[in-house]
Amino acid sequence: MFLLSELILSIPFIAYSCLRIRNLVPGRLLKHSSVLLYLVLFLGYPFAETLSRRQPSEWTHPLMITGYYCLPYLLYITLCVVTLDIGILLARTFNLLNYEAVRSTRFRSGRLAYYLLIPALIVAFGAWHNDRLEIKEILVELPQRSSSIERLHVVFASDFHLTWITDENLVERFVTKVNGLNPDLILIGGDVLEGDRGENLPLFEEQFRRMRSRYGVYAALGNHERRRTDAAAFFARSGMKLLRDRVELIDDLFYLAVRDTHRFKRKSINDLLQDAPRNLPVILLDHSPSDITNVSRSRVDLQLSGHTHNGQLFPVNWIVMPFEYELAWGKMRKGDTIFVVSSGVQAWGPPVKTAGDSEILSLRIKFTRTAEEPLP
């Protein structure tokens, strides 16, 4: 699991912060309680993941939510302890703070309050930020080639991660926002469902069916849906056309290519496009932006991806994402291809986002003709 691996790698820093807080807490009983708190925070996330695979009940739902919040709270306690301790060390090194002040009861109490309250405020902000679904406008210019199309309005969204704990109004709010944009084409970039969690499928299917666009709604599978046998049926009942390693000609105007999410079994980008003539623009839907170099050497004009969540929790977006993805979020041109990566509609696991927005991308595409391109 993505966040679980980060949790395990952070054990030395977590242990250090636990010892620092234990040292600040007065009394033996409270010191033991602080260690117990850290144990609960450390186990909270894997406990929530275990509960999420079971049918929810009145008592499991609040426990699951609480367990998910434990991870970001533990992360930010650890960051606050480490960064403030470094700051205090530097202040003492440059004689800006003396030993007596650091050991004073008032300073120690303030330090403890900082360690416990600031992370709580950050997590509260992250929960609000995750629930704040925004529309991002992106302007794109693509070659028209022999097509008669001049403009195209595409709405792209990915990474809903619908589970039992998802707010039942999330999809309703999403559909209302999307329909309000009056798009020509709606593209769903995968990870709508979780691989091994429960969710209220009939409700979500009914809500998704209300999406409207000129050329329809197309979807790709994400890595979480790859393990589900009911994914194809869900997309069909939701009014979405699911494509896997296929190219679809849209109204004789442009090609929509969709790659399979399994990187080791899917077609290469050139094999995928071999039966599509070169006279029309090509838009590629790929859940993960993991093959940017090869795609940039192909005749794909625009690739849309999700998957990364832009790290979801700061500072993962600074430390991990740049090493894993050439583009973890935003827009980039490489070669003749434009790449756009969304940070997703909703967070995965903990319903907290301190990196990346909860977003719907509204792409306004203008098609232009070069001097070499013939008239249609």
Task: Give a description of the structure.
The protein has 376 residues and is of the alpha/beta class. Helix content is 42%, strand content 18%. Strand 6 and strand 7 form a beta hairpin. The N and C termini lie far apart (50 Å). The model has no long low-confidence stretch (mean pLDDT 92).
Give the CA-based shape.
Answer: elongated
CATH topology of the largest domain: Purple Acid Phosphatase, chain A, domain 2
The topology string of helices and strands comes to HHHHHHEEHEHEHEEEHEHEHHEEE
- Overall helicity: 40-55%
Coarse structural class: alpha/beta
Give me the count of strands.
Answer: 12
Query: Which oligomerization state do the chains in this entry correspond to?
Result: single chain
Strand-helix topology:
Layout: H1 2-9, H2 11-24, H3 28-52, H4 60-93, H5 99-103, H6 105-131, E1 133-143, E2 151-157, H7 170-181, E3 185-188, H8 201-208, E4 217-219, H9 231-237, E5 241-242, E6 246-250, E7 254-258, H10 269-273, E8 282-285, H11 292-296, E9 302-305, H12 316-319, H13 321-324, E10 330-334, E11 337-341, E12 358-368
Parallel strand pairs: 1-12, 2-3, 3-4, 4-5, 7-8, 8-9, 9-11
Antiparallel strand pairs: 2-12, 6-7, 10-11
Short description:
With 376 residues, this protein is an alpha/beta fold. The chain has helices at residues 2-9, 11-24, 28-52, 60-93, 99-103, 105-131, 170-181, 201-208, 231-237, 269-273, 292-296, 316-319, 321-324, and strands spanning 133-143, 151-157, 185-188, 217-219, 241-242, 246-250, 254-258, 282-285, 302-305, 330-334, 337-341, 358-368.
